[in-house]
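Marked as duplicate of an earlier ticket. Keeping the data here for the record.
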Amino acid sequence: MLETKAGKLLVDCGMFQGSNFNEGKNHDKFPFDPKEIQVLLVTHAHLDHIGRIPKLVKEGFVGKIFMTKATKDFAILIWEDALHVMKENSEKHKTPILYSEADISLAYSLCEGLDYHEIIEVLPGVKAVWKDAGHIFGAGFIELEADGNSSAGSAGSPQDGAQSKRICFSGDIGNEEVPILRDTESMGDADVLLLESTYGDRVHESVDARRELILDLIKHSVEHKGAIMVPAFSLERTQELLYELNILSEYEKSLPKMPIFLDSPLAIRASAVYERYPEYYDEEAKRLHDFGDDFLDFSGLRMTLTKEESKTINNTPGPKMIIAGSGMMNGGRIVHHAFRYLSDPASTLLIVGYQAEGTLGRRLYEGATKVKVFGEDVYVKCKVKAVGALSAHGDQPKLIKWTGTAKKMPKKIFCVHGEPHAATELAHRLRDAYNVEAVVPEMGEKVII
């Protein structure tokens, strides 16, 4: 929350994800009065950034919500899917539901989609601009200028005499050389940077090894006639994996023949959004698009939209690949496949995204040999492989490098949106690299800029 002379605004309003404790926190009251918030700025459409917006509306928020056009298209899909999952959980476990269809409809009516680099006055004297974060389709980092001369020319470039404060909200910063997406843009001027630290303590493997790693795993599965389970986030992880498989299938001709199931209704619907905004594509994706190639489809790909179609996967013998949500394995169709194949030595679990503490995905990532699925003990005998090069998040070197692109180095950096060790490690590295004040703020801490 940011309080300016013109009023109060929020940046993002997402769901807690991970352990039952975290997910229970979604039902807590907001630490502010939603009726007092005039504007909400959204960096991107992942659930941990937009998941509680309908709850915010339900509790009295009636202001404007600004985001990129693609983020707006994704938001309605994400909210509807989240409500579907909550209803299923409510039926099974009697858990409360955060919001209704009516709350989603009202939230969507308050949304306004913007183009990248479109400077907008979100409150009197408060200007904001979205730049490409290279994280997921439509994701942006937000540069905001406030409490300066109302005649300021543009966000980050006030006219002489203005005493503006400039803040950059990183949202989530993308990985290096991500398929489909353009590279993360450079930062402008910022007095203060709020920087995500998801992978603030890790280094991904080489991007060049990405296709080779995928191909090796597929060949292993073909050889052993097993199933490859891919718990994939429906936005970006899934589409980037499909893109890589398309290249292996149609251009390198190296993809072994096997059925590949996209078993995620949300991912299937989200893929349609990519077709609406070719201006977001990087050079390679644009070239394929202009050539007439649907780079999210290829021979052997089967989309299972309904539950009935999903059940047919069980009747298909291996080898096969199953791409399904949720990305952290804390719900969705991937859990059913995990229940069936985790104990199969011929099968493989391919982890391609961040796994929060307390999730099934995290336990498997950390080497658990026995897990509970649907209340039953399942012994883990399949191969478990994590590919950091397929992550949507930049690693520690990328975050440090991106901070260094600032037109003027921020006076202070707050490392947020990461587990304590990752945030602290990144803060230390930033201090060493740029001799800048970098801190990890406490929940509820107030800071005067």
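See parent ticket for discussion. The chain is about 30% helix and 20% strand.
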